[in-house]
Amino acid sequence: MPLPHRAVKDQPEGHPRRSTRAQCPKCQRPQAACICEWVRPVANRVELLLLQHPLEQGHAKGSATLLQMSLRHGRIWVGERFDPQELAQALARTEAGSTWLLYPEDRPHISPGLMAAAACRQLVVLDATWRKSRKMLLLNPLLQHLPRLALLDPPASRYTVRKAQLGHQLSTLEASVLALQQLEGPSAAFDDLLKGFDGFVAQQSSRFQP
What pTM, to 2 d.p., does this model score? Predict the structure, then answer.
């Protein structure tokens, strides 16, 4: 699994305490909490760039690691404010107009989500709470100019191990998979990944139940 990019200036000061517990070399979690059995390989065509807030990095209940390990074309960058030049290069990996941001459409001039199916080649997803995602959007003006993709009639979340701030909110994995299905069309691979996610949620529920 490729190492995530880090926006070093946005990381907390000091160094994390080194764990003495044996870790899985693939998912980088303690062996007792390994999530590798829930990985479901998906050969996605639309590349995923996940911008992860530092507070989500290493979160035991977070779904981003499982998502990255499952997708053939997916990267994670960790930070809150990214270097504008590096971010511009990342957004320009595909032809102009083909990088989209998964975010609710709140501006009338943004193209409807259905148009993205033909145009989108790279999808940017913010892995953060709703409040932190708004801050990331404000701190990185380049993201504000991207065309946006909104989920169409998303189902209820299967992510029962973390409380959503709003009733319609989904986990990062769920939102990303639904967005990729919206762009690429339904597939058994995406369905299988969601089933693997169900196993991940059940595992976390058993570990963190009162």
Answer: 0.82
